[in-house]
């Protein structure tokens, strides 16, 4: 396996945990996020394996930025074996009654469109090589709507579920597979965007970002003949 990967949302949370996991196992990883300082922090947390990282500040909700980022990554790596779409956002005012159009569009652009732009950028070289794994970090909100998540987040995550299924329906014959991971509550900085952020005690009972990274690691390392299409993981 060509041990090169790209991970979006690498500046915090699950994206950071996946990037760290890959680097610890000798992968070269392009880490993607909007804030360069957050990517720098990810690199610092990796220690010496952080030398495996290619830092690529990019707003994945903007297709022109994704195109430039992909050109840089492929020039450096030549090939990308794994794409992990882990970037995601929400808004405190998320209920239908108060959701603004700006927040709605921002969630769709980041959570769904950004993932599609990255798939569009990196899938052709996977298809040509007949090898590649795409892992989409969804949410259990991508299976069942809830007021806790809000409609824009739910819509974006249902769309990401559909993208994963479409990749497997169309590309498995080309050696490309996709896995959708559906975590329940995770203790990440995204919780600060809730209308009422959970307490420290509540966070301690949640999944940790590293738990979800282990799920991604499983999907990536299965023999190429096998696809884990969905992983639903929740706190005990």
Describe the protein in words.
By secondary structure, the protein is an alpha/beta fold. It has a single domain, classed as Rossmann fold, CATH 3.40.50. Helices cover 45% and strands 16% of the residues. The protein contains seven helices and seven strands; from the N terminus they run βαβαβαβαβαβααβ. Strands 3-2-1-4-5-6-7 form a seven-stranded parallel beta sheet, sandwiched between helices. β2, α2 and β3 form a beta-alpha-beta unit. The termini are far apart.
Proportion of residues in extended strands: 15-25%
User: What is the CATH C level class, in words?
Assistant: Alpha Beta
Rg from alpha-carbon coordinates: 17 Å
Shape field: globular
Please estimate the helix content.
40-55%
Fourth-tier CATH superfamily name = NAD(P)-binding Rossmann-like Domain
Question: In CATH terms, what is the fold-level topology?
Answer: Rossmann fold
**Would you identify the regions where 5 or more consecutive residues have pLDDT less than 50?**
none
Calculate the mean pLDDT score and round it.
Answer: 96
How many distinct helices? 7
List the defining traits of the structure above.
236 residues, alpha/beta, 7 helices, 7 strands
Write a brief caption for the model.
The protein has about 240 residues and is an alpha/beta fold. It has a single domain, classed as 3-Layer(aba) Sandwich (Rossmann fold).
